[in-house]
Design a protein that fits this description.
The protein contains 30 helices and no strands. By secondary structure, it is mainly α. Among the domains are: 84 residues, Serine Threonine Protein Phosphatase 5, Tetratricopeptide repeat, CATH 1.25.40; 177 residues, Butyryl-CoA Dehydrogenase, subunit A, domain 3 (Up-down Bundle).
Length: 565
Amino acid sequence: MAGKILSSHTEATKSEMVPQQRPLMPVHIFNAAIKGDTDYLVQCLGLEEREEVKVTIRASQSAPQQVEEEHETVQFGLGSATHFGDNLLHLLISRRHNELALKVFTKDMSLLKAHNNKLETPLHNAAKVGNKEVILSLIGLSSSTVKDALGETNENEDTALHVAAKHNSMGVISELMKLDPKATYKKNKQGFTPLYIATVEGHTSLVEAMLQVDTTLACIQFSDGTFPVHIAARMGNEDLVEHFLREYLDYANLLDSCGRNLFHMAAEQDDSDVFTTVFALAKDDIPQISQMVESMINARDYEGNTPLHLAAMKGHGSVMRAIWDKLNHDQAALLQNRKGKTAFNLSFDQVWDTTDKLDRSKINNYVEEKGCYFTPEWFDDVMSPYQNKLERTQVIGLGSVLITTVAFAAAFTIPGGYNADNGAPILGKRFMFRAFILANTFAFIQAFQSLFIIVHSSLDYDIEDLHLEYAVYKFLSAASCMVIAFGLGSYVMLAPVSLPIAIIILVVTLLIGSPALFPVIMMEKSLVKRFNSSIADTTYNIPYMIGILTMPMILIFCLPVLSLL
């Protein structure tokens, strides 16, 4: 047929599957499919026999030629595809025009196995949007065709079940599993099964629904050597872990390729909620679970590490405390891995390496008093100050970036704007305007210093406590100056309109901004004391503290006076 334009198609890579080349879909058919225009597509593609068409054809002398042309038009419309390779079924199923999709499917069932440029079939699209209704209808029309299409894979070698698992399409995956249970075990290019994907994505209800259809899936080992319960524990999905333990009471015997159980996984990922959930189950008077917990918490992997060893290596204090409280303390202190290390030895090494050199005396004092054993003091006094250092660094860094960005923008979008003639600030000669510029500048400089300290110190992959404290010091000073700058900017803008409101805003911001410096004073005292305690004790008197507190105010409000002289 003249005028056919072939759509572009991508080559399949490792699968060596190439979508069948199809003529480019006419615009009028594409628009009708998108809108779900049933009458137009039925008439255009002959999806239903129309009585008036039969009468016209009988009355026409050129009936054979007209029938041939109409048949060719219908076949062209059904066999056409978009630039992305989507045929009519792809489009209709994705937009849930299900009645039209069933008419097209009845007319040409081969379209259900046709691939687009990403090697996706219409069944993949149904799984992606969770179109359970069309799946049920297609199965009712021809279950064998749907079963054949279920084996088709996309460019990632995902079947429709893989796609349904990723997009949490519970209704779709249940019906397709019933149609072909074996398809549930098929792996994609990464070696993942649909159950693995659903577990990693945290789709708890979907995993439970899949296990209701096929209970043996819970004990199928994945390609990485793990079982579903291990993935649930690794992802911190305590609800799914609880489901597995209640339904499968022999899960303590399931080990991954490294000989680790679900407690090893949770300990390595710093998820104390998994332990809390499982320990609560053990208290529910379920003897099998209590025995399982006892077995798993003392189990060693192939390197001799218990869950407590793994948590100690990572410095996961909350998990270590949860495990230690459950263990026989004497036994836990003596257990060694294959390298001869106890859990305390590993925790000591981890805390020592992540502690500032100036504070290691606390660790040495603990060992001298308590020995190489865990006690509540180890978790509360030694580990706690350091285990959240990364989170604190990230928060201070993010806050510094925010202040730097706002201050930078405020320097070029100043209150009152610029003079169109010479580009000078319109309010540039006002005292409060100059005070605003200074406060904004101090905020920018100190926030940048805080950010610079964090970035520079983190180049060694571990920011020292001294540097972190100084970064916090600069951040709090910058925050105080930013609040004061806001008050000054508001005063400049509102004073000509409503002086009382402008004064109120300025006073409130000064009252809010100044107290923010009190933590700065105490932090500076701590910093000075690190270098020379006598200096800190003698210099930090009331006048000195007042001077530190009022210094930003003095600079912000006195320097503009000098500039006016």
